[in-house]
Automatic annotation (TrEMBL):
Protein's name according to its UniProt entry: Multidrug export protein MepA
Top-level taxon in the UniProt lineage: Bacteria
UniProt source species: Paramuribaculum intestinale
Ranges in coiled-coil conformation: none
Family per similarity comment: Belongs to the multi antimicrobial extrusion (MATE) (TC 2.A.66.1) family. MepA subfamily.
């Protein structure tokens, strides 16, 4: 395949650009959806939506546990020219996505109110959060199959088709959301319905690809649909992004509770402000994820084939791209934070809280791109333990202690400062870990 011979820069363009476009469109959908909710339902609905972020992270976490692990393993098998086992991976991913979505979605629906109150819901926001998540959880099987197979589509050599499926999901969503919210007056529940409908259309597209025998890797009834050894590898490699999402869930709970405690009478609006900043930061982070998704098949294939120089070159280019993207985000949020916040709401108090928080929140944002790329590098070459360690440093080991200490000294500014400080320290840890692993690998390959 060209993954082992083509120019790295050309391959990154070929694989990353479609993934970036899909990520940008997905991020824009999240932003536009929040704008529809903020302007069509109200400022408190933004806060209710922010309460759902940790639960949404959990929904995605259990999906990426399978999707990312399956994509990485299929790329490695293709690098080893083992097409039969790559096909086994596709079959296994479909089955695992269906089982896991039904179990997770069902259990979460049974205890939805208790979970939302734990995540920081109040009597003012619980109805909004519940209405949104009930619809999302009912559509979990569709979302899991779509996301799981879409990752495999990209990893098995179809980045453009993977981009189209993301565009389908978002396009349908953006068309339906304003109809449900403004025309049919379905409120925040209408926004969730639009999300599920968009995912359903994209899911049909992805399933059609893997059913077709014209696809290089496709479903095959003769191959195994559940292989314990493959399932274990999928979960082992997928554990890094899974834990990252779980940590993000835990961290959001701490952030929401800190904002409610130190935000005074504007506690609920402070949670809404964090929702605005979260949507903003995820826009640029998702672009970086687009770069890492494009890197993943290149890294996995060449690592599996033993092409170490191509692996290193891919990583170097990815780091510079990642830092460039988050630097652009830093410039925008530091120069015009109020303008960004006003896109989501007309509530002046909410705009003021979000604009002030942004200048602290995004202080060290440029280095986030580098940290994300390094973390995903270790995941792509089948070293999940290191990737897990790096995900834990930023979101758990540093941020939570900062959230306990800094707000006591600086109030709500300490909440925003905690996020910035953990970003900086996690970046340093990522650089040191990468240097140490590179040195260790070079010594291993130079030893006869």
């Amino acid at each position: 395949m060209t993954l082992g011979t083509e120019s790295i820069s050309r391959l990154l363009i070929q694989y990353s650009v479609p993934a970036i476009i899909a990520s940008v469109v997905t991020s824009l959908y999240n932003i536009i959806d929040s704008i529809f909710i903020g302007r069509g339902v109200g400022a408190m609905a933004i806060s209710g939506l922010a309460i759902t972020f940790p639960l949404m992270n959990l929904v995605i976490a259990f999906c990426t546990l399978i999707a990312v692990g399956g994509a990485t393993i299929s790329s490695i098998f293709m690098g080893q020219k083992d097409i039969s086992r790559a096909t086994d991976v596709v079959n296994n991913v479909l089955l695992l996505c269906i089982i896991q979505s039904v179990v997770f979605g069902g259990i979460t629906l049974l205890f939805l109110d208790e979970i939302l109150y734990f995540f920081g819901a109040t009597p003012s926001t619980i109805d909004y959060a519940r209405e949104f998540m009930e619809v999302i959880l009912l559509g979990t099987p569709i979302a899991y199959v779509f996301i799981g197979l879409n990752n495999l589509m990209r990893a098995t050599g179809y980045p453009r088709k993977a981009m189209v499926s993301a565009l389908l999901s978002v396009g349908v969503n953006v068309i339906m959301a304003p109809i449900f919210i403004f025309v049919l007056d379905l409120g925040i529940r209408g926004a969730a319905m639009a999300t599920v409908i968009g995912q359903s259309v994209a899911c049909v597209w992805v399933l059609a690809h893997f059913i077709s025998r014209r696809s290089f890797i496709h479903f095959n009834l003769r191959n195994r649909w559940f292989t314990p050894s493959i399932a274990r590898r999928i979960y082992a490699i997928g554990m890094s992004p899974f834990l990252m999402s779980v940590c993000a869930c835990i961290v959001v709970v701490f952030i929401n509770k800190a904002l409610l405690d130190y935000g005074g009478d504007a506690g609920d609006l402070s949670v809404g402000a964090y929702g605005i900043l979260n949507r903003t930061t995820m826009f640029f982070v998702m672009i970086v994820f687009g770069v890492t998704q494009g890197m993943q098949p290149i890294l996995g294939f060449n690592y599996g084939a033993g092409n170490w120089e191509r692996v290193k070159r891919t990583l170097r280019i990815g780091i510079w791209l990642g830092m460039g993207i988050t630097t652009v985000g830093w410039v925008i949020t530091e120069l015009v934070p109020d303008t960004v916040s006003s896109l989501f709401t007309t509530d002046l108090q909410l705009i003021d809280i979000a604009g002030h928080g942004a200048r602290i929140f995004f202080l060290f944002y440029p280095v986030i791109g580098c940290q994300i790329v390094i973390q995903n590098y270790f995941q792509s070459v089948g070293k999940p333990k290191i990737s897990i360690f790096l995900s834990l440093t930023r979101q758990l080991l540093f941020l939570i202690p900062f959230l306990i200490i800094l707000p006591k000294q600086f109030g709500i500014d300490g909440v925003w400062a905690s996020i910035a400080a953990s970003d900086l320290i996690a970046f340093v840890f990522a650089i040191v870990t990468l240097w140490w692993q590179m040195k260790k690998h070079n010594q291993a390959i130079s030893t006869p």
